[in-house]
Amino acid sequence: MSANEQTILAFETRVRQMILHFKQLKKENEDLLAQIEKGKQDIADLQAKLTQAQNDFNSLKMAKMMQITDGDLEGAKARVTKMIKTVNQCIAILSDEQ
């Protein structure tokens, strides 16, 4: 085998190695890009969940405030009803005395 043939053979071998290395790097790059896309999707999902959780929290906070207000309103209604009954009893007593 002549020196030129050996040089060509070595060059061919080196080109094949570079092609294989390129394919490996290309595959690795595709895998990394897929991981990045998955990470972006995970972030978007988590942000959506966070937004939903914040909305739920605000709704619960509002419901709790309304519940407290309703409880106060019901208590006030009960006190007014009791006062009305007492006034009616007083009126009845005064009516009987006359």
Number of helices: 1
Domain module tally: 1
Spell out the helices and strands N to C: H
Largest sheet: none
What is the gyration radius calculated from CA atoms? 42 Å
Structural descriptors:
98 residues; mainly alpha; 1 helix; 0% strand
Written overview of the protein:
The protein is built from 1 helix and no strands. It has 98 residues and is mainly α. The chain has one helix spanning 3-97. The chain has one domain. 97% of the residues lie in helices and 0% in strands. Keywords: Coiled coil. Residues 15-63 form a coiled coil.
Short description:
The protein is an all-alpha fold and 98 residues long. It has one helix at residues 3-97.
SSE blueprint and pairings:
Elements lengths: L2 H95 L1
Keywords: Coiled coil
